[in-house]
Amino acid sequence: MNKLIVVEDKSINSGEYILDIKKDVSLNISGNVVIHDIKSDNNWLNIIIGNNCNLDLYMVKKLQNDYYIHITLLNNAKLNLNMLILNENNHQVKVDIDMTCDNSIASTHVRALNIQDNSNLDIIFKGYIKEKTKGNELVEDLKGLLVKNNDTIKISPIMIVDTNEVLANHLVTIGNFNTEELFYLESLGLSEKIAKDMLIESFMKQNMSEVELEFLKLGGDKDE
């Protein structure tokens, strides 16, 4: 697996990469690309997925500042976005998905939680499908888990669809721990704290690859 430190705009060709993005940059995707973005310090990222190209993007963002990512799909492009947001204090995350051509597919999965008391997270997720385009598909799967004292999560799903030849839908859920799952785990003899920790871990691992799972297991402190 290739490991890249990114400090300027870059074209990324077919392959699997672990990226450490140091500045706000643009990435041009060519071929079939898998990206693991787990340690980056940037606050802004622009991605263009080229014609007939595929991107599997796995992200773990521990927020130090507000964050913005913009992804454009060209003809016959495919995006599989899996994003875990870990928030401290008060931050906003904006995600823009632009489908400007034909026959592209964007499957997006975002999981978010606060990791500090009295924190507030605001997520704005916008999908735009351009007029006169056809055959595009956009799915937004957005979930927030409230686990801290006096924390809030706001998710605003926005779809701007200017064509009828499209498949688009979104699912948004924000909530506390599932009481039935907690009851079941505690009935096995687990303490409430351990049961909640297990549910948090399960939530964080959704849609993540082995790279992210190992990163989370190590607490993100070990150099890859």
Describe the structure.
With 224 residues, the protein is mainly beta. It has one domain (2-179). It contains three helices and 15 strands. The relative contact order is 0.13. The mean pLDDT is 92.
Give a short synopsis of this structure.
With about 220 residues, this protein is mainly beta. The protein has helices spanning about 180-185, 190-205, 210-215, and strands at about 1-5, 10, 15-20, 25-30, 30-35, 45-50, 55-60, 65-75, 80-85, 90-100, 105-115, 120-130, 135-145, 150-160, 165-175.
**How do the strands line up in the largest sheet?**
1-3-5-7-9-11-13-15
Query: What is the percentage of strand-forming residues?
Result: over 45%
> How many domains comprise the coordinates?
1
One letter per element, helices H and strands E, the order comes to EEEEEEEEEEEEEEEHHH
Return the structural class.
mainly beta
The percent of residues in helical segments reads: 10-25%
Q: Give the overall shape, derived from the CA principal axes.
A: globular
Q: What's the total number of strands?
A: 15
Low-confidence parts: none
The radius of gyration is: 18 Å
Q: Give the termini distance in whole angstroms.
A: 11 Å
Please outline the major beta sheet. Answer: 8 strands, parallel
Mean pLDDT: 92
- How many helix segments? 3
